[in-house]
């Protein structure tokens, strides 16, 4: 190319009018005409962007917040129009998923999470830590498109009548685009996700999940952004990709989820309510407070979407590998919400994964008890892990998935204190294990002199559970927008962060995760 020709081309490029994106023009037009995005041509362009580049669609949608466009109504229209283009038969009902209209004013994130957690415990008997985890998971369903991981919510009950279906009913009133179903097929999952990106609420998974490898594979792949399956469609067997990227809660009766799903899940283990454990019966025809919380969650998510898209929270050392991946988006939400939730979420993550600060201290105390009771200076790893699992009232017998603590898990937890297993001599054998003297420094730093004798907490009556607190009855005026004024003592709805001694008492009286 000659120098003269190159100069002409460069001048033409510089003088050319920039090509404007019609969707950018639509944002400007919407400031004067909020109905502009509802025009037929605009809807077609928006649907194409949402399908081809979901992240760009979310960023574009955020810009509409500065206009008076009714975003909830627009999203419903987009889902309906996308469904019309994919209908292949007139049978059944068209897919219609509820999507709450965002609350009319900014929402305090910490108070929102408090309200969600309290609402759950009002209707279902479960540990406070699990209610906190579910509250974070609910909010994440409004934000998952800007996150990288959407952890599954694994809801397990040992027998019937433990509240799992009630919990799913509550989630169906609180989550973004909830789709409550049972015995769903693999094809129905990926076609529904491709169409509407719902929050899948799957009940009775024990009746079908273990025997359907294709369904488990799809639920596994949808855990990570970009997850998809490839299928051939039509008479010409055209190759098409279907998205599987969507939140999912999976409920079943049994000991645990299939291994691959359990590995990608936040564990929620229910148990049957006793007569002395108060709850408020869930009524499907009286869900006004739940819908209000859902609208608040939608608004808070809109206001914090950019922040969450760029979030990279500091993760505790006791969370690593897949467990850290599961908790990272929930901890990011807690950090953005503020208040007591950043610490609270990390404590919850540690408790449910067996690695919290409180759990670590109890581990040291229980090990001290075992060494003292056995009057020995050395123990094999297998013996120590078995003794921990057998301690009545301790969490070591049922950790992740209801399984007892293993030698490897014990080694990872003790590594936090720089205590590592090594070869020890017992008679003529040299198994891997621990010497008592290895724990001396940690015991001196982290335990009180008599803590080892009080380490295993016996089961107690659950008289102090606040699971029966009524959200409506406790909704004080300062919570009207779920905002907590400074200097106001936080309630179960608007704060939930008690002093340390009260927190310990609550943990001791809360139901365990069995």
Structure description:
The protein is α/β, with parallel strands linked by helices. 45% of the residues lie in helices and 9% in strands. It is built from 19 helices and ten strands. It has a five-stranded parallel beta sheet. The chain has a three-stranded antiparallel beta sheet with strand order 8-10-9.
Outline type: elongated
Strand proportion, as a percent range, falls in 5-15%
Helicity level, as a percent range? 40-55%
Number of strands: 10
Largest sheet: 5 strands, parallel
Q: Which H/E pattern describes the elements?
A: HHHHHHHEHEHEHEEEHEHHHHEHHEEHH
What class would the helix/strand composition place it in?
alpha/beta
Give me the number of helical elements: 19
The average pLDDT score comes to 80
Distance from N terminus to C terminus (CA atoms, Å) equals 75 Å
- Radius of gyration (CA) equals 26 Å
- As residue ranges, the low-confidence spans are 451-514
- Strand order across the largest sheet: 2-3-6-1-7
């Amino acid at each position: 190319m000659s120098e003269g020709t190159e100069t002409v081309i460069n001048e033409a490029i510089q003088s050319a009018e920039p090509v404007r994106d019609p969707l950018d023009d639509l944002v400007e037009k919407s400031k004067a005409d909020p109905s502009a995005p509802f025009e037929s041509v605009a809807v077609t362009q928006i649907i194409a962007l949402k399908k081809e580049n979901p992240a760009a669609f979310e960023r574009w949608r955020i810009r509409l917040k500065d206009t008076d466009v009714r975003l909830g109504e627009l999203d419903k229209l987009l889902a309906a129009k996308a469904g019309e283009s994919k209908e292949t038969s007139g049978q059944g009902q068209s897919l219609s998923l509820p999507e709450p209209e965002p609350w009319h004013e900014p929402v305090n994130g910490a108070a929102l999470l408090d309200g969600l957690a309290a609402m759950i415990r009002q209707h279902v008997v479960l540990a406070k830590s699990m209610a906190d985890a579910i509250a974070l998971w609910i909010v994440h369903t409004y934000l998952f498109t800007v996150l990288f991981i959407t952890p599954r919510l694994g809801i397990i009950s040992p027998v019937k009548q433990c509240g799992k279906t009630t919990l799913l009913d509550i989630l169906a009133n609180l989550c973004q685009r909830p789709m409550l179903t049972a015995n769903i097929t693999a094809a129905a999952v990926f076609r529904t996700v491709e169409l509407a990106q719902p929050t899948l609420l799957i009940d009775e998974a024990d009746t079908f999940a273990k025997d359907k490898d294709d369904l488990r594979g799809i639920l596994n792949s949808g855990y990570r952004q970009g997850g998809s399956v490839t299928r051939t469609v039509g008479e010409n067997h055209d190759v098409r990709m279907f998205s599987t990227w969507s939140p999912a809660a999976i409920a079943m009766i049994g000991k645990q989820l299939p291994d691959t799903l359990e590995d990608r899940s936040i564990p929620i283990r229910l148990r049957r309510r006793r007569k002395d454990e108060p709850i408020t019966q869930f009524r499907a025809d009286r869900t006004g407070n739940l819908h209000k919380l859902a609208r608040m969650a939608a608004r808070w998510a809109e206001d914090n979407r950019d922040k969450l898209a760029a979030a990279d929270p500091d993760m505790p050392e006791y969370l690593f590998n897949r467990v850290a991946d599961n908790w990272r988006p929930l901890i990011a939400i807690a950090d953005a919400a503020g208040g007591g939730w950043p610490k609270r979420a990390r404590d919850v993550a540690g408790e449910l994964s067996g690695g919290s600060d409180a759990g670590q201290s109890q581990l040291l105390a229980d090990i001290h008890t075992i060494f003292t009771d056995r009057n020995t200076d050395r123990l094999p790893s297998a013996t120590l892990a078995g003794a921990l699992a057998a301690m009545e009232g301790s969490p070591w017998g049922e950790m992740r998935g209801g399984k007892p603590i293993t030698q490897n898990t014990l080694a990872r937890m003790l590594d936090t204190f720089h205590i590592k297993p090594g070869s020890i001599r017992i008679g003529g054998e040299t198994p891997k294990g621990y010497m008592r003297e290895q724990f001396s420094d940690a015991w001196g730093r982290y335990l009180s002199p008599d803590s080892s004798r009080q380490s295993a907490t016996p089961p107690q009556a659950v008289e102090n559970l606040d699971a029966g607190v009524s959200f409506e009855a406790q909704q004080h005026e300062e919570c009207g927008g779920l905002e907590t004024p400074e200097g106001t003592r936080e309630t179960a709805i608007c704060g939930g962060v008690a002093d340390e001694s009260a927190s310990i008492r609550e943990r001791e009286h809360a139901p365990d995760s069995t």
